[in-house]
Amino acid sequence: MTIALNRNKSPRSSLRKRFAAWVRGPTLARDIAIVLAIKFVLLMALKYAFFNHPQAEHMSLPPEQVAQALLSVPASHPSQGDQHAR
C-alpha cells in the first residue's frame, strides 16, 4: 500500500480549476445556488420594502393587548334552538 502525494499542484490551483469548471459547466449545484441567491435577494427586498416599519406610528398597540387578542379563544354564541337535530 503506497500513498501517492501530489506535490506538483498547489491546493489553490485545484480550487481555481474546480471553480472554473463550476462556472463553465451546466451543473445542477450551480443552478440551485444561483436560484437560491436570487430568492434570498428578492426576499430581503420584500422585507425591507414592506415589513421594516409600520405604516403609521400612531397605530401601535401595547404588547399585552396584542397577546390577549392572539391567544384568547372567542366566546361561542349560543344557537337559537336545536334546529340541526330536527
Describe this structure in words.
Helix content is 55%, strand content 0%. With 86 residues, it is mostly helical. The protein has a domain at 26-52. The radius of gyration is 30 Å and the shape is elongated. The mean pLDDT is 78.
Span between termini: 88 Å
Class inferred from helices and paired strands? mainly alpha
Write down the secondary-structure element order.
HHH
Roughly what percent helix?
Answer: 40-55%
Mean pLDDT: 78
Structure summary, number of beta strands: 0
Radius of gyration: 30 Å
Largest sheet composition: none
Helix count, DSSP H or I runs of 4 or more residues? 3
Return residue spans where pLDDT drops below 50 for at least 5 consecutive residues: none
Strand content: under 5%
The 3D shape can be described as: elongated
Offer a quick outline of the entry.
By secondary structure, this protein is mostly helical. The chain has three helices and no strands.
Please outline the helices and strands.
Layout: H1 11-24, H2 28-51, H3 63-71
For this entry, give a set of tags.
single chain, 86 residues, mainly alpha, 3 helices, 55% helix, elongated
